[in-house]
Specification:
With 210 residues, the protein is an alpha/beta fold. It contains 6 helices and 13 strands. It has a single domain, classed as 3-Layer(aba) Sandwich (Rossmann fold). The radius of gyration is 17 Å and the shape is globular. It binds uracil (URA).
């Protein structure tokens, strides 16, 4: 597993406001979208492109375009939805599939409650969006789901992660190649499965259900 922590003062600045308990939902949502655009830039370094010939006003030139089959963006519902617009801004030709995962607050285990993805993902590049990599349960389940449909190239983009969650995902994947791009790697998980210092419940803060 390759882990890349995006290290940029703009990301750290926006993360600081995002973490602040006094930041209201509308600002939180806008910040997640902005942060996501920056993380999408990092996360798409390996996006597949193919050569294309064009003509500039001055001369013929060779460039690239996003290759077929188009990348698939998979936000994990519900909090991953808040990351979608920022991602699509950078990758407008990508397709979007949805995976609904909820965490059982007692067992902390993920359950899949919704799924809207192509049956066959062979040769598809997939970008999974999940803001909080906490225990790693939902992200592992989502990645396993994509592998089971034939995906071979998976990048997960998360705003924050706990070291415990990263280790859990790595162990569960048994050496299969996945890239994880993070805004920051935090200290730890607390006894309730929350990332510390973290930002609280990302879904609640995005959608105002605090
Ligand atoms: N999910 C969240 O939204 N926040 C955490 O800290 C952990 C899981």
């Amino acid at each position: 597993m390759r882990v890349h922590v995006a290290d940029h003062p703009l990301i750290t600045h926006k993360l600081t406001v995002l973490r602040d308990v006094d930041t209201p939902s509308p600002v939180f949502r806008a910040l997640v979208e902005e942060l996501m655009t920056l993380l999408a830039y990092e996360g798409t370094r390996g996006v597949r492109v193919e050569p294309v010939d064009i003509v500039t006003p001055v001369s013929p030139a060779r460039g690239v375009r996003i290759a077929d089959p188009k990348p698939l963006i998979v936000p994990i519902l519900r909090a991953g939805l808040g990351m979608l617009d920022g991602m699509v801004k950078l990758l407008p030709t990508a397709e979007v599939g949805f995976l609904g995962m909820a965490r059982d607050e007692e067992t902390l285990q993920p359950t899949t409650y919704a799924e809207r993805l192509p049956e066959d993902l062979s040769d598809r590049q997939c970008f999974v969006l999940d803001p909080m990599l906490a225990t790693g349960g939902s992200l592992t389940a989502a990645i396993e789901f994509l592998f089971a449909r034939g995906a071979v190239d998976v990048t997960a983009i998360c705003i924050l992660a706990a070291p415990e969650g990263l280790r859990a995902v790595e162990q569960a994947l048994h050496g299969r190649e996945v890239t994880v791009v993070l805004g920051a790697l935090d200290e730890r998980l607390n006894e309730h499965g929350y990332i510390v210092p973290g930002l609280g419940d990302a879904g609640d803060r995005l959608y105002g259900t605090v």
